[in-house]
Amino acid sequence: MNTDSLTLGFIGYGNMAQAMAQGLVDAGVLPGGRIVACAAHYDRLVERTAHLGVRPMHSGTEVAAAADLVILAVKPGQVAQVCEPIRHELADPDRMVLSVVGGMTLEDYADILEEGTHLICAIPNTPISVGQGILVTQEDDTLTDQQRELFTQVFDPVAMIERLPRELVSVGTTIAGCAPAYTAMYMEALADAGVEHGLPRQAAYRLAARMVEGTGALYLATGTNPGAMKDAVCSPGGTTIKGVASLEKHGFRGAVIEAIDAVERGD
Ligand SMILES: NC(=O)C1=CN([C@@H]2O[C@H](COP(=O)(O)OP(=O)(O)OC[C@H]3O[C@@H](n4cnc5c(N)ncnc54)[C@H](O)[C@@H]3O)[C@@H](O)[C@H]2O)C=CC1
Ligand SMILES: O=C(O)[C@@H]1CCC=N1
């Protein structure tokens, strides 16, 4: 099995599944016609699958029968119910299952899937839709070496795959999977300030977005400590340091750390 013959099936075709399908099709990993999906509302599914040519199916049973790689992409509270009728099909040794369900680890599936099911738990983030995603995966999985290789072939073109031990998956996921929302809030705030000072809204968003993208790219290319990256922008007596001092006065870094803590505590 390789990506040329792989059929991928989504059980649940909401925001996350659509982001993954978009990224994979745009990156040329596989055509929409080799992706199948089911969801709670068939009519809405037909609308959401049309533009990529993803094939809508009526049930998880049909998806499991058609797909070599089945992606569980429903809400955590729905996963046991959707797996129950297809446990046997999911345990087929030629099939692999990827769970992208928030908060679910390999251990959580012990009562949900049959023993021997080839399963990997990973959490993607929404930038996967433009090939710039992250997949935080639990280090231990039950894939064969060949399946693990195939998993990498499929997702490497659209995401950085970060394998973490089970106890660190949660915080890794919070930073990679939840923080796009906080980063979008930061971009929105920067743009609001730009608009306040007369910048057209779209130009302000463009500047904020490219700045976030470029700052991340600079770190990834050089490995420079983020503190040193900050220092490099702050000329003595210059403009940037005034903003740094203001952010510190308003608890910027503390607020970010507290947001991650809140997710981890489950407030
Ligand atoms: N949105 C995000 O950024 C991320 C989401 N996730 C995880 O992905 C999963 C899905 O999240 P979203 O796509 O955001 O939610 P969503 O609400 O947009 O999508 C849920 C999908 O499940 C379908 N569904 C509900 N009951 C079903 C059933 N009985 N059979 C088949 N399909 C059914 C719905 O029709 C819908 O297509 C969650 O577990 C979430 O934790 C993980 C990483 C990031
Ligand atoms: O908020 C959520 O439930 C999901 C999990 C990771 C990102 N979004």
TrEMBL record:
Positions of the Pyrroline-5-carboxylate reductase dimerisation domain: 168-263
UniProt KW keywords: Amino-acid biosynthesis, Cytoplasm, NADP, Oxidoreductase, Proline biosynthesis
Amino-acid biosynthesis found in the keyword field: yes
E.C. no: 1.5.1.2
Cellular localization per UniProt: Cytoplasm
Entry-linked SUPFAM superfamilies: 6-phosphogluconate dehydrogenase C-terminal domain-like, NAD(P)-binding Rossmann-fold domains
Pathway involvement of the protein, from the record: Amino-acid biosynthesis; L-proline biosynthesis; L-proline from L-glutamate 5-semialdehyde: step 1/1
InterPro entries to which the protein is assigned, alphabetical: 6-PGluconate_DH-like_C_sf, NAD(P)-bd_dom_sf, P5C_Rdtase_cat_N, P5CR_dimer, Pyrroline-COOH_reductase
GO function terms (MF aspect): pyrroline-5-carboxylate reductase activity
Residue intervals of the Pyrroline-5-carboxylate reductase catalytic N-terminal domain: 8-101
Keyword check for Protein transport: no
Catalytic activity: L-proline + NAD(+) = (S)-1-pyrroline-5-carboxylate + NADH + 2 H(+); L-proline + NADP(+) = (S)-1-pyrroline-5-carboxylate + NADPH + 2 H(+)
PANTHER family in UniProt: PYRROLINE-5-CARBOXYLATE REDUCTASE, PYRROLINE-5-CARBOXYLATE REDUCTASE 3
Homology family: Belongs to the pyrroline-5-carboxylate reductase family.
Functional note: Catalyzes the reduction of 1-pyrroline-5-carboxylate (PCA) to L-proline.
Protein name: Pyrroline-5-carboxylate reductase
Gene that encodes the chain: proC
